[in-house]
Amino acid sequence: MTKSISIITPFLNGIDLLPDYIAATLGAELILIDNGSDQETADALRELPPDRGVLIRNERNLGFAAANNQGYAAATGDIIIFLNSDIAGDPAWLGLVADDVQDGALYGPSVARQLVYGMWLPYVEGWCVAATRKTWERLFKDDLSLGIDYVVECGPWDALAYPGPYWEDNDLSLRAIHVLALVDAVACEDTRHSRTLLQHYAIDAPLRPYHDHNADEMRPRVLADIAAAELVVDLRSGSYAALGRVPGAVHVEVLADHAPRLRLDTIVCDPTFLAGDTHLAGYAASLGAQLIVAPVRRPDGSPRHDVHRLAAVYADLMK
């Protein structure tokens, strides 16, 4: 399946950059953010053909990070690229992006090191940063249901800590290291180089060699480790009227149908989600899971779970 690509670019003036930029991004969905440009540039941006993407107009400059987050909220691609406006090139580079970019990594034109507060950090150049949607979601637990203001402030780019220019890309690199530190194990082609990197950042996750020569042997082990890991599924309310089923049953049905060997011990469900659901208990039983009904929803009425209530339920289960 061909991966779709969204390119997000803030503009603050720079009308002379548009011809080269438009030519170099042919084939991708464009999310252009007019970040308070002058009238001439604003008029030129409005001429973007509808089939090329979306234009977002800000009456004032919200800053690079906030504008990027606005674009992220509107992007639909499998791969999302944050790209500066002053670029030129053959649009064939997008084919390489579609082929090369995989889940679990940030991609840029080069990776270097920068000294930040006494620590050498890997630095992905911020003028062009690509990743899959899933990867961006790991760096930022997005929830568009909280509203566009939340996404603008707290999206993949930290608009609160970095409202002005510079250092936002360093922050992305720092958060990527933080995510790496949370993993249980690292499968890698060359354990020697990977061990040096992990030791530098005091990450003690075990390393597993995984390459073309041992893939047949290692793949079942890696998959078994993944299957044995703790799985937390946050079931939320939504519109499933067309399916004739309620959200909890839909999610658990997917697990039952597509992961028949998955061992699911417990499903915790808020009473408000269970109301009127005649399927969830059956699907839970088909997975060998115990269904625990407990008030874990946020008291403000939102569909998200309350972390403290959920933690209390988990604590009782561990006794």
Major pleated sheet: 5 strands, mixed
Sheet-strand content, in percent, reads 15-25%
Count of individual beta strands: 11
Q: How is the largest sheet built, in terms of strand order?
A: 3-2-1-4-7
The assigned structural class equals alpha/beta
Order of helices and strands: EHEHEHEHEEEHHHEHEHHEHHEH
Low-confidence stretches: 141-148, 235-247
Helix content: 25-40%
Count the helices. How many?
A: 13
Radius of gyration computed on alpha carbons: 23 Å
**First-last Cα distance:** 47 Å
> If you average the pLDDT, what whole number results?
78
Indicate the overall shape: globular
Which structural traits does this protein have?
two-stranded antiparallel ribbon, five-stranded mixed beta sheet, alpha/beta, 319 residues
